[in-house]
Amino acid sequence: MISLFRKIRQKLLSQNKVTRYLTYALGEILLVTIGILIALQINTWNESRKEKNYLLKVYAQIRQDLQTDTLNLRLSIEDLEAKNARITEIIERSIPVTYYDTLNESNYAACDKCISDITNLEPFQYLDKGYQLLKAVNTAQNFKEDSLSNAITQFYSKYLPKVDESQILLIDLSKNKLAEYQQYDWFISYADFCRKTYNKDFIL
Predict the structure, then answer these.
(1) How many secondary structure helices (H) and strands (E) does the chain include?
(2) Are 5 and 28 in contact (CB under 8 A)?
(3) Average per-residue pLDDT in the chain?
(4) What range does the domain containing 65 cover?
(5) Please, what's the b/e burial string for 167-201 (b: 16 or more CB within 10 A of its CB; e: otherwise)?
(6) I need a surface site. Which of 5, 21, 61, 140 has the fewest CB within 10 A?
(7) Is 138 within a domain?
(8) Is residue 195 situated within a structural domain?
(9) What is the secondary structure of 163-192 as a DSSP string?
């Protein structure tokens, strides 16, 4: 194609048709420019499609994270409700003293009421892999104008600090109560407590 254009230009020059040569040269430049612009546009479309496809994958990861968090939160709520019921029974002294007389080394491990619900804490661990990926996308590829990305970023930036703060408060409460219990003679080591080692004084 390039050699063909060159032959046409040489022919026009040899015939002293300067005006036609200039017109043809300008047309050739225009065609090349248009070709370059089309190639650049196609490349831009391809890159844009890749970026959008990647963003969709990030959204899918965020959705998966939230679904898992929702399930784990539901389990945590059920566990907290059970703890609340046990603590209420203890506070209101609705558990007969004779119930504790039935406990021994063989059945103590199955005793839900023997758990120290105040010091026994399982912090909620949220998943933020998708959110971290989205922040990287927003920084590197400037997707900040995307309404869904903005909504997700605002949600996480607002609520994750609240979750972290709540977790710190609960952990501190658990540690403080554990330190308080260590002063008593009936206190058992945390390792024995986790193994549910039978200790009659600890129960009473």
Answers:
(1) 7, 0
(2) yes
(3) 74
(4) 60-203
(5) eeeeeeebeeebeebeeeeebbeeeebeeeebbee
(6) 140
(7) yes
(8) yes
(9) HHHHHHHHHHHHHHHHHHHTTSTT---HHH
pLDDT tens across 81-91, in order?
A: 888 887 787 77
Give residue-wise pLDDT tens across range 99-156: 777 767 666 666 666 666 666 777 788 999 999 999 888 666 555 557 888 889 999 9
Of the candidates 117, 115, 112, 113, the residue with the CA atom closest to the CA atom of residue 97: 113
Split into its structural domains, the chain has a count of 1
Tokens (6 digits) for 115? 């758990």
78 part of a folded domain: yes
In a domain, 198, yes or no: yes
Tens-digit pLDDT profile for residues 159-201: 999 989 988 888 888 788 778 877 777 666 655 555 566 566 5
Nearest-angstrom CA–CA distance, 89 and 116: 13
